[in-house]
Each structure stands twice: as structure tokens, then as C-alpha cells.
Amino acid sequence: DVKVTQSSRYLVKRTGEKVFLECVQDMDHENMFWYRQDPGLGLRLIYFSYDVKMKEKGDIPEGYSVSREKKERFSLILESASTNQTSMYLCASSLFYGAGTSYEQYFGPGTRLTVT
Amino acid sequence: DAKTTQPNSMESNEEEPVHLPCNHSTISGTDYIHWYRQLPSQGPEYVIHGLTSNVNNRMASLAIAEDRKSSTLILHRATLRDAAVYYCILSHRKDIIQGAQKLVFGQGTRLTINP
Question: Are A75 and A20 in contact (CB under 8 A)?
């Protein structure tokens, strides 16, 4: 079974702190994604990566950065956390499109981040 | 971008079939239809996807209208574990960037299963 793990289920940080959210997948997937989920707004894509050291902005990249130094690991960084970044953060991974498989994205359990 | 419309909520009984509708009247010829679901306190999980023909897998069936302007996710025999938010998503070739498929999740349908 594909497994996507996230470093914490719950995290509480103070305004202005630098925050790292870690995601690891064990299926050798090329693509990894970071979403945030807020009530009434659904899931929104922050950033994604299609290869080591390669990244693309999603729909709401402002205030975030990412790092992918190894294929299995994708980090989301909040350089200076703010209260409006309080949210559920979800990581996902998938195979490269065109590999002859479906488009499935496999999600982790999420990290609920509270910024006070 | 083609959008989907789903009912906010639906209710069904355990062990009965459930038909979850999705309207996508502006779908283009190369848009795929995906369904994901999100169980309480979990990340979304893939359910099924299709292009033109009906599709079956171990979790569900996807029935696609002939004009492709609507589709229905069918759970053949609902269990309490099927209580979740179900998302109907369209994806277009233009949403594939460097081999990564971008998905846009809407609000979905919250399905309640009564014992």
C-alpha cells in the first residue's frame, strides 16, 4: 500500500515563527503536492513538485515556500507564520502522468496547524 | 475552467445503494471525471475516474451520461464506513504540468449513512 506520512498531526506555533511541515512517501512517486483545507473553501493547492529540486506554484503560494532535496520527502515552509495560516495542511503524492497508470493522488492524514 | 455542481448533502441507509450526482455541463471533450472521498479526520482518498465509458472498481461504479454533462457515483451497498465528503473533480490536459496532474477540489457532497 502507498503510504504518505506527515510529521505531525497537530502543531501549535506562534506568530512570526518559522514552521516546517514534513511529508514523506514510500512509493517512489515523482510528484508531490501540498494543499491547505479550510471550512467553506475546500482544498487549495499551495505548491507541487514534479522532481527533486523542481517545484511549481499552485493556486495560493503566497507566504509559503517548499523544498524537495530527496525524492521521497517534500517540505512546506512558513517563513514567518501568521494567524491566517491556521489551517489543515495535506500532503499528497502521485506517479508521473503518462506512466500508464491512473491519476490517483495519495494523501497523508494531514497536519492541523494553529498559529497563535 | 469547467466546474462541477454537487448537492451539499445526502443521506442514505446502510446496505442500500447510493447514487451521488455531479453536474458538469461545461465539460470539454478531453476532461476526465474524478471522484475522491474524505472520511472524517483523514486526507482524501481516490475512488474512481473515467472519461466517456462507465467504470467499475472494487469501491464503486461511475456512470457517465452520454453527453458527458453529468455523472453519478454509485456505491452499491453502503456501509457506515462510507460516510464521508465525496468530491467530483474535472481535470483537463492543460492541468498537467511536467507530468503532475493539478486537481481542484470543490465543496463536495457530505454523505450520511443511517444504521
Answer: yes
The 8-class DSSP code of residue A28 comes to: -
What are A57-105's pLDDT values in tens digits?
A: 999 999 999 999 999 999 999 999 999 999 999 999 998 776 444 568 9
* Phi, psi dihedral angles at A41 (to 5 degrees): -115, -10
CB contact under 8 A, A51 and B98: yes
Q: Is A20 on the interface with B (CB under 8 A)?
A: no
Tell me the C-alpha distance between A38 and A11, whole Å: 16
Q: Which residue of B has its CA nearest to A112?
A: B41
C-alpha grid cell, residue B37: 472521498
- CA A70, CA A88: separation in Å to the nearest integer? 24
Q: Which of residues 27-66 of B touch A (CB under 8 A)?
A: 32, 34, 36, 41-46, 49
Total residues belonging to chain B = 115
pLDDT in tens, B77-91: 999 999 999 999 998
CB contact under 8 A, A110 and B101: no
What residues contact A76, with CB distance under 8 A and at least 6 apart?
Answer: A20, A21, A23, A34, A46, A47, A64, A65, A66, A89, A91
